[in-house]
Specification:
binds (6-phenylpyridin-3-yl)methanamine, alpha/beta, two-stranded antiparallel ribbon, single chain, 5-stranded parallel sheet, 8 helices, elongated, about 15% strand
C-alpha cells in the first residue's frame, strides 16, 4: 500500500520509521511519501494561511497551495482516496481502518490553524473519493497526530505486518471491526512470573482448560466494557449491533427504546478469585 501525506511539518512524521510500521516500510510493504505543502505555496512569502472571511479568531489555510499540492500528488501514482483529519469529520473506527488497509493508496491532507478553506475538499471530491475523519472529540493543533494514529491502525492490519494475525482479531474492537470481539474491550493480560509482589495470575489461565480460558476472557471483556464503555455495553445488553451494520447477537431480540440505564449492564465475576 502507498500512503502520501501532505503537511507543513514533514519532520512530524519521523515516527513512521520506528517499530512495526517502520519495519513494514523498510520491507516495502508500506510506501510512505511525505510532502511539504510549502512546495506549492507559490507566492513570494510561501504563505499557506490567510484571515477568515466573515471575521473571527485565527487563520484559515489558503486554497491555492492545497489545490496545486493535491493535483501534483494525485497525478503521481495510482488512483487514491483522500483522507482529511478534522474534528468535524466522521468518527474513525476499527472498521474504517480495515477498509483503508484494503485500499491501494491513501493521501492524507493535514490542516493546521482553524482548518482548510472548504472549497479544497469540494474541489477534490470531483476527482477522487474524499473522507473527512475525526479520531475523537477533541481539538488538536493540526491533523498530523491524527494521521500518525490512523496510519498505525491501518498499517498493523496489512498482511504480514503484525506477526500473528490472530492477535489483531482478538484485540479490543477486533482486527477488522467484525467478529466476536468487535463490540468488546479486551480484558486484562498476564505473563510470568506467576506471582509478582504477592499478586497471582488468575489460576484459570494456568489450568490448560481452553474452553474455560475462553469463557473467562469473554467475561473479563464484558466486565471491562461495562465499566469503561457504558455506551457499548448498553448496545450489547439490548442485543443491538454494537457496530452499525453488524449483525445483532443471535437469540437476543432488539428492544428499541429499551437501552439499559447507565451502569446497569451485566458485570461478570472473574473466576479464580
Ligand atoms: C485541528 C486541522 N479528531 C481529532 C482532530 C483532527 C484534526 C484536528 N483536530 C482534531 C485539526 C486543527 C486544524 C485539524
Amino acid at each position: 500500500m502507498r500512503i502520501d501525506i501532505i503537511t507543513i511539518f514533514p519532520e512530524y512524521f519521523g515516527p513512521l520509521e520506528v517499530s512495526l510500521i517502520g519495519k513494514a516500510a523498510q520491507r516495502g510493504d508500506i510506501v510512505f511519501r511525505v510532502h511539504d505543502l510549502r512546495n506549492w505555496a507559490l507566492d513570494v512569502h510561501h504563505s499557506v494561511d490567510d484571515t477568515p472571511y466573515g471575521g473571527g479568531p485565527g487563520m484559515v489555510m489558503k486554497p491555492e497551495p492545497w489545490g496545486e499540492a493535491l493535483d501534483a500528488v494525485a497525478a503521481a501514482g495510482g488512483p487514491a482516496r483522500l483522507v482529511v483529519p478534522s474534528p468535524s469529520g466522521r468518527p474513525f473506527t476499527q472498521r474504517m481502518a480495515a477498509g483503508y488497509a484494503r485500499e491501494p493508496r491513501l493521501v492524507f491532507a493535514c490542516g493546521r490553524y482553524e482548518g482548510i478553506d472548504a472549497r479544497v475538499v469540494e474541489d477534490a471530491r470531483s476527482r477522487m473519493p474524499v473522507d473527512e475523519v475525526s479520531i475523537g472529540d477533541y481539538v488538536l493543533a493540526g491533523g498530523e497526530p491524527a494521521v500518525l494514529v490512523m496510519t498505525e491502525a491501518i498499517g498493523r492490519l496489512l498482511p504480514g505486518v503484525l506477526g500473528n494475525a490472530q492477535s489483531a482479531a482478538d484485540d479490543s474492537f477486533g482486527g477488522d471491526g467484525e467478529g466476536p470481539m468487535a463490540a468488546l474491550i479486551e480484558g486484562p493480560v498476564y505473563t510470568r512470573p506467576r506471582v509478582w509482589r504477592g499478586r497471582e495470575v488468575p489460576p484459570v489461565l494456568l489450568s490448560g482448560d481452553h474452553a474455560a480460558i475462553a469463557r473467562w476472557r469473554h467475561d473479563s471483556a464484558l466486565r471491562v466494557t461495562a465499566a469503561n464503555r457504558p455506551d457499548l455495553a448498553a448496545r450489547i445488553a439490548a442485543g443491538q449491533p454494537a457496530v452499525p451494520g453488524q449483525a445483532a447477537v443471535p437469540g437476543q431480540p432488539a428492544a428499541p427504546g429499551q437501552a439499559a440505564a447507565p451502569g446497569s449492564a451485566t458485570r461478570g465475576t472473574p473466576p479464580g478469585e
